[in-house]
Specification:
homodimer; 435 residues; alpha+beta; OB fold (Dihydrolipoamide Acetyltransferase, E2P); BirA Bifunctional Protein, domain 2; 5-stranded antiparallel beta sheet
């Protein structure tokens, strides 16, 4: 069909004109004297009024999801969705769907259990609600990158096949690498720190791999990590300031690029305060004890219930969806964590809670070569597997720190999805390797 | 030091003022009555004139690459590099380098063999020339993404752990996945095609993994692939048009973000013509026969020497650094390749030569479910391992196609590096897994 194609979202600009739409048969409603074709393209839905019996029959013979071109006249109709319809269509079949979809794609939500939806991801992702989630994903990534670029950060891409396990051993996937053992990177931690020596400020958006044998609604074995690292910091507070800006940029990115998706999913967007409230780990446990009577003051970490309680506290006391908890006990953080010079046994590491769930881990890192050698020795780790990493510190490195945001977890909290698989394109877990 | 830090590149805006620079001791030149400290930060180099004997001694005790703060007064000096120097400095040591670097970092190029440079990547990447390469990398990625976003493409992130080998079997890395066999994705091919059903136009910038046991200057076992796929195309020519725009965007990105790096590396930037010349595979072989007497007309692929010859031909005959060779024999392309409807046995697949080397592979794909079943059967491949992929076609898919650019290879051709490892941050090859 020679008529130039327009997007469904552009119909309103072409009232009275003949246009071509192209897309998928989202729904065909056949009434006594008229049929309504709902066509779906990448931008949305369009209503097409079919009065011609032959065209109605042509469409009636197709399964939903068949791909068609439709040429017709744009008519302004106040009661139509979006205020416009296509009338008097001619339809050309591009590609027939070979079977009816196993669930209705036109309902507001797919009426199937999550495993069924995930098994049929190539189809289910076409549903407007599912698709909208990944519009938010793309917009979040762009917002992250552009914010950091504006702050003089340089994008890097670091290797995912590595010679040794990043954080010290457990939960890595092993690869057979030309007769050697190699591993999938659990994080770009070592490389992003190394690159502070080159660019001072770096970020990376890339997959990370965790061989954790957990089957929970918040764990994935592969996910996208938004990583950042910066040099010449005072301490972890400079890292928190950049993280705050990155989050604000991700929210702004969604508002700019994906306003329709936000509306469709009824996303309650968080306000990112200019300064996110922060509480020291030990003060958080004191507070919980004082307010709830639960004494976790000798615990080395926050329980999920305590994270939820603190999230609620931040919301009611500070009007914030976000809360920094900083100063976790040093021995619970990785060996490269910088100690708090003012509180022996505590670190300059932090977590960021978003609506009561850990979303980000970050902190200040050690930067002196001798401190690395001492930290490894103290944990009984040999220096040799870390030789390439240690080289960065041997030859002079400024105080630095960084953070990592889990993209799928960010989206899950944002749309309040109970299971992070709902915000993962093609999730990988203990039992799922396909599609 | 309380004075606010400025970048070395900002000195010219602060003549007469007291400022702080922070960075690495790039070089110390000690003359009879004066020393010159060259300080390197993320933005460049600064010359600092040290007349105070105590400060000179303080600096003289440091190895190169030590990290320092320097407070001094900016003085305009026409004969100084960049026309400005810092005078009367006070120096504060931030972090001492623990050893002298194994090669001089201040020379125009590192005087060492490539393996030595790669062994010391955490240090060598700090060298201005090496660092500049990865500024071009970051700028290329941004240009790619922004161009495609401007053309209504949506960014995706697809899984790298997959259940079956993408293109049919060989050269995949195997992973132990909770007792199952899994593989590292050789490309996002299946997923990006699947996502055409969702967003119509998608792109991905992510690592790909090839277990090819080749040790050549142009092969890597892990590299960054700039992938793109789009629906509702006429044929491969619409893909070529998008690729042309993406390349122009990558060049523009470098000009905007990395002009200094382009200048330092003396990059001969390609002009990307609005329409890149294209030659059919069989016509290319005819041309080579006619012009050189070499008869490769029965070969199913282009030899590297013929690619080089064609690159030269495109330059002299069309004034273009780029040349599309399209219509490769169908049996030499992957099973999902769309045939040329007008030439039996040939495909709508293409390669893009950049200065005589294959940089991009792309083409139109099959889009009808029945065609996929037939193509798999014809090659003796079972349909079952491809079930998730085939689902996308079962439920209606428009004509589509796409391409993949190897980021490191792009950079290597651009700076005319003889070995692609020079444009790879931390290369992975047959013999190299670290750093």
């Amino acid at each position: 069909m020679e008529t130039v194609r327009i997007w469904s979202s552009e119909l309103g600009q072409h009232v009275g004109e003949q246009v071509r739409l192209s897309g998928w048969v989202h729904r065909l409603r056949e009434l006594a004297n008229v049929s309504f074709l709902i066509l779906r393209d990448a931008k949305g839905l369009a209503q097409i009024v079919v009065e011609d019996r032959a065209v109605a029959a042509q469409l009636g013979a197709l399964h939903a999801e068949s791909v068609v071109h439709v040429v017709g006249t744009v008519v302004a109709v106040p009661q139509a969705p979006g205020g416009v319809e296509l009338h008097a269509p001619a339809v050309e079949l591009v590609s027939a769907s070979a079977a009816p979809p196993p669930f209705d794609m036109f309902r507001p939500t797919i009426k199937a259990q999550l495993p069924t939806i995930l098994d049929h991801a190539p189809l289910a992702l076409r549903h407007p609600r599912h698709r909208a989630i990944f519009q938010l994903s793309a917009a979040s990534m762009r917002g992250f990158r552009e914010t950091l670029r504006g702050l003089d950060f340089t994008e890097i891409q670091t290797p995912k096949i590595v010679a040794s396990a990043t954080e010290g051993g457990a939960n890595v996937f092993a690869i057979e690498y030309f007769g050697q053992k190699a591993y999938l990177a659990q994080s770009p931690q070592f490389y992003k720190q190394t690159m502070v020596g080159v660019f001072e400020r770096v970020f990376e958006v890339a997959p990370v791999f965790r061989a954790e044998p957990h089957d929970t609604p918040r764990h994935l074995n592969e996910y996208v990590s938004l990583d950042c690292e910066l040099g010449f910091i005072r301490d972890h507070r400079d890292v928190q300031a950049v993280l705050t800006q990155a989050l604000a940029g991700m929210v702004a990115g969604m508002q700019q690029d994906a306003a329709d998706a936000l509306a469709l999913l009824k996303v309650r967007l968080p306000a990112v305060p200019a300064k996110i409230p922060a509480i020291h780990f030990s003060e958080a446990l004191e507070l919980i004890f004082r307010e709830t009577g639960e004494d976790a003051r000798h615990e080395p970490d926050l329980a999920p219930a305590h994270e939820r309680w603190l999230g609620e506290w931040a919301r009611t006391q500070h009007g914030s969806d976000f809360l920094f908890v900083w100063g976790y006990p040093l021995h619970k953080r990785p060996f490269y964590t910088h100690p708090d010079p003012d509180r022996p046994g505590y670190s300059n590491g932090f977590d960021l809670l978003f609506r009561g769930l850990e979303l980000v881990t970050g902190g200040q890192r050690l930067h002196r070569y001798a401190d690395y050698l001492a930290a490894l020795a103290e944990r009984g780790l040999p220096a040799e597997p870390f030789e390439g990493y240690l080289m960065a510190f041997k030859y002079g490195m400024p105080p630095h720190g960084g953070f990592a945001i889990g993209l799928e977890r960010w989206l899950a909290r944002l749309i309040e999805a109970p299971n992070v698989r709902e915000t993962t394109l093609f999730p990988r877990d203990l039992n799922r390797l396909a599609p």
